[in-house]
Amino acid sequence: MDNRADRIRAALTAGFAPLRLEVADDSASHAGHAGAAPGGETHYSVVLVSEAFTGMNRVARSRAVHAAVDAEFATGLHALALTLRAPAEAA
User: Fold this and answer.
1) Which CATH superfamily is domain 4-89 in?
2) Is the pTM of the predicted complex or chain greater than 0.70?
3) What is the pairing mode between strands 43-49 and 20-25?
4) 48 near 21, Cβ under 8 Å?
5) Where do the structural domains in the chain lie, given as residue ranges?
6) Closest CA to 80 of 32, 45, 39, 31
7) Handedness of CA 57, 62, 63, 67 (dihedral sign)
8) What is the pLDDT along the chain (91 residues), one digit of tens a residue?
């Protein structure tokens, strides 16, 4: 897997058994901003619905997702925009 979006998807699928997972590369809209790289793959949006988030607050959910993709931050991922929901909260 040499595509960052695929690696993010794989890590989140393994860690959270999502009912819904969307990973979008938003890097083009951040060109010229801090952390943006000429090749992209630096800024992503994630929508993740998982039973694993039931009973977790927003900060705990975010920390869990960041831990799951920590290797990507070490290799150039700069930012994640996260929408994290338990199934009962999903619209």
Assistant:
1) BolA-like (3.30.300.90)
2) yes
3) antiparallel
4) yes
5) 4-89
6) 45
7) positive
8) 589 999 999 999 999 999 999 999 988 664 556 555 555 678 899 999 999 999 999 999 999 999 999 999 998 888 899 999 999 998 6
